[in-house]
Amino acid sequence: MRAYWQKVLDCGRDIHLFLGYALLSYVGIGVFMLIFNLYIVQLGYNEGFIGAVNGVVTLSMGTTCLLLGYLINRFGNWACLTIGTVEFAVSLVALAFVSSGPALLTLAFLNGIGSAFIMAGQMPFVIEWTPRGHTAMMAAFSSAVSSGSIMLGSLVGGLLPSAIGAMIGVAASSAEAYRWTLVIGALISGVSILPNLFMGPARTERHHEDFRVSHAQLLSHRVRRQARRDVGALILLGLFLALGVGAIEPFYNVLLTEMGASAGTIGIIFAISGLAATVLSLTGPALAQRIGYISAQVWTRLFFIPIHLALIILPVPWLVSLAYAGRKISGSVAWPLESAHAGGLVPPQARAHAFGLRSASWNFGYAFAAFFSGQIIARTGSYTPAYISLAVFCTLSVAVYVVAFGGRMPETISQAASTARPVEPDSLATD
């Protein structure tokens, strides 16, 4: 354990400050994720409109991510993260004080822009500014910080409505209590930019020196062709994953509410799930070293599917909670492994475009799935199509990953693995 924390310390001041930024910004996001749908319900809207709002947010994020690679390459990750966070906080405050459908949809679109910079900019920053050899470890650690912050945000978001309701004399489940909870979440996200202001090279220099070195690599026709294939695979697997996850993820809290759970109970469920995801995400690199990165991806991306299929015949709150926890754990463990493995195979100068396009495909697919799934749920009252969609498309996503990246390892992971413990040659590339 001491050696692990020494590696974290060795990652440098800018990465440490970034972790502080991620901690605060994702607390605000956690409050938003828990409360916003409940706020919409209290305004009188149904699952169909919730799906539309979530679709608009993710459509906005996808559009922004199409430009993210260019913006990061042009202005640097620091500027994109900082400006995007301010925009997220301001738009969230505005969202909390409107109730009409068109206004909610418009501001949701603006909120999605800031969300894209925060969420899609995290891994490019970590991979670019983390010392070589520590990439996989820090990708997992930063993901754990983000998951833990969302957990904390869910807990805060679940407790605040009762406290606010008691203070202003309204019900804890009222729109007014939810409104001020959202405002507090926005303020926490806004404060998160303070650590960024104290960064060194990540703030003053737009890019790490590896970014400039990679330009010569991209002159090779073979490297360019392989990079295009890798980016295409990331886009396709992100799209499939989004089509599956987007069909159900926006509706967990609404489903639990319909089953009689209060906002406080849902907050606790989300918080416990986030805690489990945070702890287990730290085990991702060790799991990948033991069974291989591809095998680790297969297991972590697929294990929660049977739980969702079981909900078709046993739709009860405890199983919904378990399904949500499984999805959270899956994303928290698998995403940093994918980022370190597949992202490390892409040349640094093309990496921001790769992550941007991968995030764009995710958000477009998520928007499409959330919108149509919401419409189906509202009309039929059944979540069964959502569960089936998740099973089919998540399986397709894993299949793309195995075909595209099986048997290949980036240099940074190979170096980290060889220094972590003795291994047989190519053992990490064998599934």
Q: How is the topology of this model organized?
A:
Layout lengths: L1 H9 L2 H30 L4 H29 L1 H19 L5 H29 L5 H34 L6 H17 L9 H4 L4 H10 L2 H25 L6 H7 L4 H19 L2 H8 L1 H10 L2 H6 L6 H29 L2 H33 L3 H22 L5 H10 L11
Helix pairs in contact: 2-5, 2-6, 2-7, 3-4, 3-5, 3-17, 4-5, 4-7, 5-6, 5-17, 6-7, 6-12, 6-16, 10-17, 10-18, 12-16, 13-14, 14-16, 14-18
Give structural notes.
With 431 residues, the protein is mainly alpha-helical. It has one domain: Growth Hormone, Chain: A. Helices cover 81% and strands 0% of the residues. It is globular and about 60 Å long. The C terminus is likely disordered.
What is the name of the CATH topology?
Answer: Growth Hormone, Chain: A
- Overall tally of domains: 1
* CATH level 1 class label: Mainly Alpha
Tell me how many strands there are. 0
N-to-C SSE series? HHHHHHHHHHHHHHHHHHH
- The level of helicity is over 70%
**Name given to the CATH homologous superfamily:** MFS general substrate transporter like domains
The major sheet is characterized as:
none
- What CATH architecture would you give? Up-down Bundle
Low-confidence stretches are 412-431
Binned strand content: under 5%
Instruction: Give me the number of helical elements.
Output: 19
- The overall average pLDDT, rounded, is 84
Structural class: mainly alpha
